[in-house]
Amino acid sequence: MKKIGFVLLAALFAACQNNNVTQDNSLESFFKEQNVTGTFGLFDNGRGRFTIYDLNRFRDSAYLPASTFKIVNSLIGLETGRAVDEKMVIRWDGVERSIPEWNQDLSMEDAFRYSAVPWYQELARRIGKDTMQHFLDTLGYGSKYGKAVVADNLDTFWLDNSVKITADEQLGLVKRLYFEQLPFQKRSQTIVTRMMRQEDNSNYQLYYKTGWGSTENGTALGWVVGWIEENKHPYFFALNIETPDIHADIPAKRMAILQGILKKLGFFEGKK
What we know:
CATH superfamily: DD-peptidase/beta-lactamase superfamily
Strand content: 15-25%
Order of helices and strands: HEHEEHEHEEHHHEHHEEEEH
Shape: globular
Radius of gyration: 18 Å
Structural class: alpha+beta
Oligomer: single chain
Distance between the termini: 31 Å
C-alpha cells in the first residue's frame, strides 16, 4: 500500500498552475448550446499540460460533490471491510423511490452504475462518522477552503452542500486513483477503477463517475469526473455544469458537453 501524508496529498490536489495551462475559450460553445454555465479541464498526463475552459471556476470555485463522492465512499467501504467487494449486496429497504433501478437489492457495482443514493447512504452509516472523518482528513478531501467536517449528516454531507470540492481537486483525485497513489490498498483502488469503466473498445477506454445535485442557491449542478485513455496514454478530466432551470435534463446535458468537447479535442478515434 502506497502511503501519502495528508499535507503532501492535500497540496497535490491543487494540480492546476498557470504555467502549464492553455485556456480554450472556444469550448464555451458547448455550454451555450446546452444553456448552462460551467467549467471543463483536461490534463494530458504525457505532456503535463492542462486544457481548461473557465480557469477561475475550475480552480477556485467549490461545489457539492453529489454522487461523485461515491468514488471515495466506495474506497473507504472497501478499505474498512464494510464492503467486502463490488459483488456485496445491500438489501432494498422497501421504500419506493422515483428511480426504479434503486427499488431492489443491489450489489456495490450495480449501486455505483445506477448511482443509487440510498445504497451509499447505508454504506456511509456502516462506515461510521469517526472513520469517515478520518479518511476525509487523510485525503484532504474538499479541504481547499477549509476542513471537510462530518457532523450529524453522515449520510447526506456530500449532498447537502456542507462539504464542497473544486473541479481541480476532483481531477487530482481521479488522477491519483488511476496511478494507485491514494492512501488505500491497491485492491480497493483497482475495484473502484473497474466500476468507473463505462466504455472499452479498440480506440479508447472511458472511465467516469457522474454527479447531480442542487446548490445552496437552488440551481441544478452536474459533474462528470474521470479519464479517457488512448494508446495507453491517460487524459484526466473534470466537467462541472450549472443552471437555474431545476427541471433541466442534467444527465443529458453533461454527457452532450463531455462528448462534444472530447470529440473536438481529437478523442474517440484512437489517434491520441
